[in-house]
Amino acid sequence: MSDIPSPRTAIYGAPPSDLVDVPDDAVQVSPLRPGAAALEDLPGKSLEAIVVAAPPGSVERRFVLAHALRALAPGGTLAALAPKDKGGQRLRGELEAFGCTVAERSKARQRICTATRPETVSGVAKAIAEGAPVVVDDMGLHSQPGVFSWNRVDPGTALLLRHLPSFSGRGADLGAGLGILARAVLASAAVSELTLVELDRRAVNASKANLADPRARFLWADARSVALADLDFVVSNPPFHAEGIEDRALGQSFIAAASRMLRRSGTLVLVANRHMPYEETLRAAFRSMTVLADEAGYKIIEARK
Ligand SMILES: C[S@@+](CC[C@H](N)C(=O)[O-])C[C@H]1O[C@@H](n2cnc3c(N)ncnc32)[C@H](O)[C@@H]1O
Fold first, then answer.
1. What are the pocket residues of ligand 1 if the criterion is a CB atom closer than 6 Å to any ligand atom?
2. Neighbours of 149 (CB within 10 A)
């Protein structure tokens, strides 16, 4: 048994601090924070309070709210908030369906719901089962609602799979998700090691189950700050959203990070939505670049350091 006492208060994600009070001792339990505790692992009825920045996907959101209620002691307080157009409008109804009496307010385009955990809750086990890790038969992959493109292969990924060069040596997949690209990369016997770097713990766990290959290493980490060096290649379908908000700089930081990780003449192969402004960053960090494909709104770019 762990010697670490279970926390009394918790926080999920990054709720705007001017909209809700977060207890000073709140422990982070979001899967998008490398090293954070897992909400799923908190003992039942152990928390006095939890603040949840509720995620946009409804199955994922109900899973998180259900786990928050499971972990709260009766009488404990739940504050959950989400932008109005990203699940906020449904929060109150979802909490009421679990048996909570909810006070709701609205500020800065967010819906903010607070509730006291009742003695008995209903439908919590069902919501937890619906949002739990699962094998998606169509893809033949372990996955979980909330993970990027959790139940279908992303069209950008599919295009990159069709144009993937045969790599050799040591490489990394930045933002590896469920490990779909990594699996294709490892199909080459000339690849000696591939490090999958991914911010989402749920995706890291799924990719471990999807890739039983001793050459694969898994890092639950932010690709922008990971210390990898002298790589022969990097592959990436870079993110352009951070916790639901479009962030074009994220892909640019991935390109800069890939350049730092590569040896001289090492290659980066990435897929990007055509409208993403990556060319300038690529030109600044690489000696040459080639567009391998330009189809259906996506570009596959190979850049040489
Ligand atoms: C566009 S998806 C690609 C996933 C997978 N490679 C595929 O092609 O299906 C981008 C991935 O990057 C992850 N991600 C987002 N920000 C990250 C960061 N700062 N460091 C590492 N991974 C990140 C996301 O969780 C997501 O799984």
1. 148-149, 154, 157, 175-177, 180-181, 197-200, 203, 222-224, 237, 239
2. 16
Question: Where would I find the H helices in the chain?
Answer: 58-71, 89-97, 124-130, 155-162, 180-185, 201-210, 248-261, 279-285
Which amino acid, residue 65? L
Residue 101 CB neighbours (<10 A): 10
- Among protein residues, the one with the nearest Cα to ligand 1's atom 13 is 175
Residue 16 alpha carbon to ligand 1 centre in Å = 23
Q: From residue 42, give the alpha-carbon distance in Å to each of 20, 71, 208.
A: 22, 6, 23
From 32, 157, 198, 236, mutation site for ligand 1 pocket: most ligand atoms within 8 A of C-beta: 198
The answer to pTM > 0.90 is yes
Tell me the domains of the chain and their CATH numbers: 9-130 (3.40.50.150), 134-304 (3.40.50.150)
The helices-and-strands tally (H runs, E runs) of the chain is: 8, 17
Cα–Cα distances in angstroms (integers) from residue 254 to residues 43, 106, 154, 260, in the given order:
37, 36, 19, 10
How many CA atoms does the CB half-sphere of 29 hold within 13 Å?
28
Cα(126) to centroid of ligand 1, in Å? 28
pLDDT of residue 242: 73
How far, in Å, from the CA of 255 to the mean position of ligand 1?
Answer: 13
Q: What spatial distance separates the first Cα and last Cα of the chain, rounded to whole Å?
A: 49
Q: Is 178 helix (H, G, I), strand (E, B) or coil?
A: coil
pLDDT, one tens digit per residue, over 134-182 is 999 999 999 999 999 999 999 999 999 999 999 999 999 999 999 999 9
Amino acid identity for residue 82 in this structure:
A
Helix (H) or strand (E) holding 151: none
Q: Ligand 1, atom 1: nearest CA belongs to which residue?
A: 239
